[in-house]
Amino acid sequence: MKLVIVESPTKAKTISKFLGKGYSVKSSFGHVRDLPKGDMGIDTEHDFLPHYVVPRTARKNLTDLRKTAAKADTIIFATDEDREGEAISWHLLEVFKKEIKEGIEGKTLQRIAFHEITKEAIAEALKNPREIDLHMVNAQQARRILDRLVGYNLSPLLWAKITKGLSAGRVQSVALRFIVEREREIQAFKAEEYWTIEGIFENKEKASFEAKLVKIGEESLEKFSITAEADAKKIIDALVSASFNVNAVTKKISHRSPPAPYTTSTLQQDANRKLGFSAKQTMMLAQQLYEGVVVPDEGQVGLITYMRTDAVNLSEQFLKESRTMIEGSFGASHVPEEPRHYKAKSRLAQEAHEAIRPSSANRHPASIKENLEPNQYKLYDLIWRRAVASQMKDAELETNSADILGAEKYMFRASGTRVTFDGFLALYPDGERPTEIPALAEGEAVTAQEILPKQHFTEPPARYSDASLVKIMEENGIGRPSTYAPTIGTIIERNYVERIEGRRLKPTEIAFVVNDLLVENFPIIVDYQFTAKMEEGLDEIAEGNKEWVPVIREFYEPFKKNLDEKAELLQKTEIATDEKCDLCGKPMVIKMGRFGKFFGCTGYPECKGIKRMGKTGEVLPEEKTDEKCPTCGAPMKVKYGRFGAFLSCSTYPACKTIKPMLKLIGLKCPTCTIGDVAERRTKRGKHFWGCSRYPDCDYTSWTNPLLPPKEGSLTVPESQV
Question: Are residues 530 and 182 in contact, defined by beta-carbon separation less than 8 angstroms?
Fold first, then answer.
């Protein structure tokens, strides 16, 4: 019997469809060993030796894997072909070596890898097994150890000097710095006024077109050439009775090439811009498409290639398929003479890997739409179009421009573009709307229908979205394909960043405090170039060009020395005030919590008196209610926690009774018909709907009873995905 081990049960289910009798396909459910949660788990005195443990959640499944492995003649490790996948295979092998009583001597051990989960790809991988790549394993271990050394050393310092519950990370803190610095640019921004002169003209055939003033005499107008309304009106007055004629006409033919197929970074960017998906949501959907979906006439099959990649290569088979498909759908005119080959921008991109592409060019999105969830379909359609379009001919565009001269010195310019050959745009439109101008001849008289001054103000730089943050991280070499989405998820989960306006990432108050402390005292940790250099060092370990222990030692020794010094020198972030504690009368200080500033008693921890602080630093009064504590009968008051407002006994800490503040939705409980249905949250922040009479009535629903099931479901919070 041959045992094949993959990471996920979905992937195991898909692969088992392709293998005949004699194979048993099992899932490891991700990592089977990791560093311990409550302890550093790294021996810094002995070459940073990691102490791995089996997480409690993995023990039962690992026992089953050991039993199956003991009976198998051949053990095939088929985890993902990246560093995490390689490390999972290695950890499994290490566990089997130690814990299979019969041992693994005499068993055939194989490592296979594939970029797509199809019958052909699995068969080819089984024909070409290899050994576990220890260089990749070491690179993964080095990253894990580095991140643990930074997190487990810096986070306690943040707890001691700012507040509990904070965290710092080698990549997350750099990402946070990008967001904080952008917010400070926005705060410091001062809008500047400028004006443009724009006209609507008409030719002799009564066809109208728009043009913009670009030149006065010999002076070309720049953005801030006209900064006052009075200056703009002077120009308008000079053109009131002016005649206009076409001074020059130019025509230019240009070509637009299709973009390269998706990498992890570009997929996350496009899915965010075009579909509104977060980076984490994009990767979750891509994982589902990769691991397998049931499609007509094929059964369970992986729809796309592996989604964590920085390569832009495409297989020869896909190139042939796509060229044949393009010719059949659009004609030979849309197929270039030779297949297109793209080169990755990153020097250290994994060229042996492939870009993200459909596993078959012939599997049109429309043919499987009914088999996919709506968001799965949207993402698959995006990937399919981008990959196939990358093998189509350039689009050809004709740009026409005309200079319109008025009053012998005021030059307006009109321009328009039309597509003369759509090429790849036939499949992958770029969203730009072509604007055409009517045919104009040099010397032709035109009439000004309207000439208006338009006031403008400069705008502050936009806050980062998932797309723009991933882009700048990639441009600066911060993180790698597998880390972009988890990094964004972490800074949101830690309450450093909140989403506003749908997609924009705005830092919270605590983010500024944490970032400033790190920038001032641990500049290396949040230095863009240093972090990028560390990433390159990890890449070189994976390539076998560097040993992992010296790379970590070079970083850790100066880092630890600086950390110890700062632990002694830094003072806790507190500001003295004249406010007195209502519980004990002692002075209160302004403290920083995970959710912002508040007034705290200097008698803490003996006295736990606190007061809420408003945006301008004022004390916010307690919000009293008419509700009585069910335990002691004292009045209940409103308090605020991680998930918003809740009711707490006013005698706290003598009585610690709390109750949720119910948000009623105007519907009677369908179970007891007495209580009202209210929107509530679990302790981990997940929405559900329950009866207001709980626990007397235990009615619960995970979808909004007022809406159809698919519309009523609330998305799981980022921290729960």
Answer: no
Q: Which residues are 3's β-sheet partners? A: 24, 75
In CATH terms, the fold of domain 264-389 is Topoisomerase I; domain 4 (1.10.290)
Average pLDDT over residues 161-189: 94
Give the pLDDT score at 643.
62
pLDDT > 70 fraction of the chain, expressed in percent and rounded: 96
Q: What is the CATH number of domain 2-132?
A: 3.40.50.140
Indicate whether this model's pTM tops 0.85: no
- How far is 495 from 519, CA to CA, in rounded Å? 19
496 is known as an active-site residue: no
Same fold, 193-257+395-457 and 264-389: no
In the numeric block, which tokens belong to residue 349?
């991109």
Cα distances (Å, whole numbers) of residue 249 to 204, 404, 409, 448: 16, 9, 17, 18
Provide the CATH number for the domain formed by 141-189+462-569 in this structure: 1.10.460.10
Question: Of 52, 194, 290, 306, which residue is the catalytic one?
Answer: 306
Q: Tokens representing 348?
A: 């250290």
- Rounded to whole angstroms, the Cα distance separating 710 from 714 reads 9
Q: Where are the alpha helices (DSSP H) in 543-598?
A: 548-569
Tokens of 489: 């998820």
Q: Which tens digit of pLDDT belongs to each residue from 148-159?
A: 999 999 999 999
CA-to-CA distance for 211 and 522, rounded, in angstroms? 54
CATH class of the domain whose range is 193-257+395-457 = mainly beta
Instruction: Assess whether pLDDT exceeds 70 at residue 622.
Output: yes
How far apart CA 615 and CA 597 sit, in angstroms, is 9
